[in-house]
Write a structure and sequence with these properties.
alpha+beta; four-stranded antiparallel beta sheet; elongated
Amino acid sequence: KLPLAWYLTLKLLREHIMQSVVGVYNLALARLGGNQLTTINSPDEDSGVVSLCNRLFPAVVESCLKSYDWSFAITQAALALLGEDQTTGLTRYAQPTDCIKIIKINGEREDHFRPLCILQGKHILTDVGGAILTYVKRVNNPDDWSPAFYNTVTWGLAAELGIALNNDRGQQQTCGEQYLVNLHDAIACDLNQQAPMRYPCPWLEAR
């Protein structure tokens, strides 16, 4: 049983995250000219628009996270060894529970033409020993997103709500187009932030 102080801290943190999520919902609804929500008492709340937003939000965020290797969502973890897979002879590891997209294993990049591993349910099969995984993690707290990613998610959610809430394919198409534009801009912004800083060369400048 958690101490009371820990319980209260976790409760306040959960409430803060939910309020941040409400901000995403409200901006998406504003894109559609809809009414604004005040608060959400539970992620499982079933009250019309809130329930619909709660169902669509995780899928939209996951889709956005999978679209690119976002700097704010990249992490590393040493994989837990589970032994040898009897069918393939490969080494079996436990996949991190928050893994959205695999980027590298032991520094070597995963790609479609030369896959480094096989995903099998919640397991990762590979011939790499002592595997350290670099991956995009699940980040559902809007406070941890970049501003450009935040804006992209709101347009993506608005596109989903356009058809699911309003049954308006025009709204869905318009918001979907804005989602793609903002996704492109968010990726470009993230790339610029990751690019190494170029320092002026006095010798070249003197020429």
